[in-house]
Amino acid sequence: MNISTTLPPNLLPDDASPDWMNKGDNAWQLTAATLIGMQSIPGLMILYGGAVKKKWAVNSAIMVLYAFAAVLVCWVIFGYQLSFGDRLVPFWGKPDIALDQKYLFKKACLGMLPNATMVYFKFVFAAITLILIAGALLGRMNFKAWMLFVPLWLTFSYTYGVFSIWSLNGFLSKMGIIDYSGEYVIHLSSGVAGFTAAYGVGPRLNKDRERFPPNNILVMLTGAGLLWMAVQGMITGLVCITPAAGVVQGWAAIIMGLFSGSITWFTMMVVHKNSKLLQKVDDTMAILHTHAIVGMLGGILTGIFAESRLCKLFYGAYNEYVGLFYGLHMNRSKSGFRQMGIQIIGILFVIVLNVITTSLICLFVRLFIPLRMFAEDMEIGDEAAHGEVAYAIWGQVEKLENSSSKYGSSNYDDIEASVSKKKGS
């Protein structure tokens, strides 16, 4: 059989396996993308589902599933090209679909890989960013509002940051920012956006904030194992090394791990508990500390410990990317301080971008759908939101007759007061 007759006319064997493609690199890139995707599904899905109260297990898992699916659709239709396409405006590429065969089998902008692989690889990063934001909103966000929030935030916040930092046409990329695996694009962005959105949505019920035990620790730890991040200890080291992966020596990675664990513990257990301002915002999974604060720390430490020889392996330019430590050691202090300055500019850009865009998106969504569930429905949880329960325990399978599937006012103080009044009577 002639193999050319079994393929579409525009996809002949030479096109499917071009000479420029490195099959080993391509295979590893696909493998790495799949492993990252598994951090979201099932990793974060079952981590969130096990870490929350039993009444929120289904809702938390479905928020993750929806975000993963919605991002995929938006990413291939317009998100990838907005993030990596030819420059349209200073922070955006030209919107276009990324599903055309002729485009998918062309060489990607970096590496000996086709665009098809790169679209998939970058998608899983986009998906996990939205899923991390969900961690700050568990236990009270109106699911319909979440359905609208996800594509809006991906379009008007995530793609801005990606184009600026990862695209070859981005202004921070041209300046020489080091963000190898997404410290700024993923962790700092999700931490700031999650905290901002949590402020817009409002807190959980008071009793849920005071006592929110995990409903299944073993399930939670299973999800944690898939990510190698759990109970805030492992995650901080994972987040901190993200921008520096492959561009710092092993001893520097150990120092970064020590700083990330200790500083985050201090901000979470000391600063947060003694700050009335921070306590006003209900960040369910402590995304601010484990992603935003560690994200800033990782970006700065990368600016200190990045080594030119290692940076050359990825960026292809020797002595253009120099951490402050090596800059001082090589009598190139100006280059070292310049790198630190670029890293700090990147941090400020991501913070300002996400505070503004996330606030505007929350205000826009609120015009059509309340961001927060009725307090009465929050008392019930999954059954009110989805008509399901996580565990069908014998004798408890009947649905509550007073469950309400309607979502209402975001004025949670008035709602909680009315619920307390009803209980008192």
From TrEMBL:
<feature type="region of interest" description="Disordered">
    <location>
        <begin position="402"/>
        <end position="425"/>
    </location>
</feature>
<keyword id="KW-0472">Membrane</keyword>
<dbReference type="Pfam" id="PF00909">
    <property type="entry name" value="Ammonium_transp"/>
</dbReference>
<feature type="transmembrane region" description="Helical">
    <location>
        <begin position="145"/>
        <end position="166"/>
    </location>
</feature>
<protein>
    <submittedName>
        <fullName>Ammonium transporter</fullName>
    </submittedName>
</protein>
<feature type="transmembrane region" description="Helical">
    <location>
        <begin position="251"/>
        <end position="272"/>
    </location>
</feature>
<keyword id="KW-1133">Transmembrane helix</keyword>
<comment type="similarity">
    <text>Belongs to the ammonia transporter channel (TC 1.A.11.2) family.</text>
</comment>
<feature type="transmembrane region" description="Helical">
    <location>
        <begin position="217"/>
        <end position="245"/>
    </location>
</feature>
<feature type="transmembrane region" description="Helical">
    <location>
        <begin position="340"/>
        <end position="369"/>
    </location>
</feature>
<feature type="transmembrane region" description="Helical">
    <location>
        <begin position="119"/>
        <end position="138"/>
    </location>
</feature>
<feature type="domain" description="Ammonium transporter AmtB-like">
    <location>
        <begin position="28"/>
        <end position="229"/>
    </location>
</feature>
<feature type="domain" description="Ammonium transporter AmtB-like">
    <location>
        <begin position="230"/>
        <end position="391"/>
    </location>
</feature>
<dbReference type="InterPro" id="IPR024041">
    <property type="entry name" value="NH4_transpt_AmtB-like_dom"/>
</dbReference>
<dbReference type="GO" id="GO:0005886">
    <property type="term" value="C:plasma membrane"/>
</dbReference>
<feature type="transmembrane region" description="Helical">
    <location>
        <begin position="61"/>
        <end position="82"/>
    </location>
</feature>
<feature type="compositionally biased region" description="Polar residues">
    <location>
        <begin position="402"/>
        <end position="412"/>
    </location>
</feature>
<dbReference type="InterPro" id="IPR029020">
    <property type="entry name" value="Ammonium/urea_transptr"/>
</dbReference>
<feature type="transmembrane region" description="Helical">
    <location>
        <begin position="284"/>
        <end position="306"/>
    </location>
</feature>
<dbReference type="InterPro" id="IPR001905">
    <property type="entry name" value="Ammonium_transpt"/>
</dbReference>
<keyword id="KW-0812">Transmembrane</keyword>
<feature type="transmembrane region" description="Helical">
    <location>
        <begin position="186"/>
        <end position="205"/>
    </location>
</feature>
<dbReference type="GO" id="GO:0008519">
    <property type="term" value="F:ammonium channel activity"/>
</dbReference>
<feature type="transmembrane region" description="Helical">
    <location>
        <begin position="27"/>
        <end position="49"/>
    </location>
</feature>
